[in-house]
Batch of 3 targets.
Target 1
Amino acid sequence: MIESKKLKEQAKSFFQNDKKVKILTAVLIAGIVLIALSEFWPSGQGKSKETSVQPEKTTQQYTQELEAKIKGIVGSISGVGDLKVLVTLESSEETVYAQETKTSLDSTQDAMSENGKTQLKESTEQKYLLVEGEDGKKQALVKTTKEPAVKGIVIVCEGGDSTAVKAEVINAVTTALDISSSRVCVTKIDSGMTGKQ
């Protein structure tokens, strides 16, 4: 109790000094102004960018890249010779966004029944997870990007009439792309088209 009286007396003597009160008031006002101004400063400056978003490929770009890869692989198989490759896709590249799922369980008791049966009702709510983009706008968080599914591949080559070459080409393509052999067609190139690409 003696200590609390001393504290009260010290506080009174501190606030009775006008100079100290003015300095304390000025410091408080400056702090409030700085907090208010921090709202207008751009956030995120000086932070390193952890991830860079790759622009999505167009279907045509993906098809051309796939055709070039297949041509490189198949062209190295013995007996294939000159070749042309055509790839068709079932769909375009698909972006899958991260979602948050909330499940709630409501129970209600039937007052009219003798044994007081309880009914359970489950409700599920899904919503996309949002993150702040570089421009400061909220955008959905990308979970993964699915490559387009291959619909079919046609390979026209000089060795396309050989059963052994066909089998090797089909085996190479189906293994590389994890597709069924029914989606791959290998045929002989027209002798008049050899060398023209």
Target 2
Amino acid sequence: MASITIRNLDDEVKARLRVRASANGRSMEEEARLALAEAVNREPAPVEGLGTAIHELFKSFGGVELKLPPREPMRDPPRFE
């Protein structure tokens, strides 16, 4: 098994780890091992775009069909003479 050293660990994180380990009846080292294993074994959250997220949020309300205006020829650009 490998071992690592974690430097510059925030005091608050260490204190919370100590409390969590105590509540679970484990050593801080064992609690840290389990927390790291749990964090790296999680399935990554699906990456979706903003449009997909908005669609998922509002799809239960039903959709709306919008009429697209007919395309027209482009206008001539303005002339600045």
Target 3
Amino acid sequence: MSDIHKKKRRNTSVHRSGKKNLYRKSRYYQRQRKKQLTAALAGGVVLLLLLLVLAVRGCASKKAEEATSSASVDTNKNAGTNTGVKNASEDPDESQNTGEDGKTETDSGLPAEPVSLTVSVVGDCTLGTDESFDYDTSLNAYYENYGADYFFSNVKSIFSEDDLTVANFEGTLTDSEEREDKQFAFKAPAEFADILTSGDIEAVNTANNHSHDYGEQSFTDTLAALDAREIVHFGYDETAVMEIKGVKVGLVGIYELNDHLERTEQLKQNIARVKEDGAQLIIVIFHWGNEKEEIPDSNQTTLGRLAIDEGADLVCGHHPHVLQGIEEYKGKNIVYSLGNFCFGGNSYPSDMDSMIFQQTFTIDQNGVKEDNITNIIPCSISSEYGYNNYQPTPAQGEEADRIMNKINERSSWITPASSD
């Protein structure tokens, strides 16, 4: 390294050394100044926050005073004039609550906004067999061969798209051997209730002439099997109220065959009971009429119309094993006989025509609207021609037209209610 370079390094070194002392001294003052600035800044922030809190409190207080003043003015106005405007507790349009399903409803429990609810009803479902029948062609044999999903597979899409499907459960689910002394007695194991759940059937009527085929124990066993699958059951003095889409649907089942018009008081009491339980839509199911009769008798027409008079929104029946007509009474429908549906009571019935009766109800804050939207789906109790394979199936083409013509013709045979 040259002397010039050595000198330059020394001068540089000295220069750096002198600058280092000055830097140390300046850092001390900088630290002190920084502390002072930090303290001042912190104090300013605290003061600013305090001012903001006081300002917010002041605005809130002012708004509260204005609201109180406004309410006082409104009260004085209402006290001094009769405007005819009801307060919220008096006006069902204004007094609204939110139900468990999140829908808005009025104090009466009725929905504030219209709710559409589609109900499907079908006839006799005998999910078992008589021990005297040929077992190889029985419904029980079909269950063993094909399982629970087989029976309603051709109508399940219809039932899965509605809001409620109701069937007549005719028979017993029991292991009891105490057969009643009668011509036909039907039973099946408890697991056959799976046929209903696999078919999207949510509720069944149990008031019919085969519900006790193996004594009282068989009826108890049947209800237990239905309960185990959470299938709603009703009939006799047992009523049910289901909440569907925020609407309470009351279900009543009446067994008319032996007592006829003596069931009048039971009918009135059961409808009154579901009303007390909050039902906003009421469906009454009857097991009535005469086998193979195509026209309802006077007991049917009297009780069916009485049910409407007492508050039913729909009346459906079964037992004749054939289709009967439909009457519109006071804007409500009475379907006198739905016929058989999934029927294990006969392998070769003479009449396999059936139907699914659907009605779509609209319920709003004024109750059930009188729109009467119905959909009749003609069916056969079998997917095969000439014998019963226990698989109800919608009819197609000319067959559907034939069954609809039969329903319309038999409806025309019903004598209208007098206008008195």
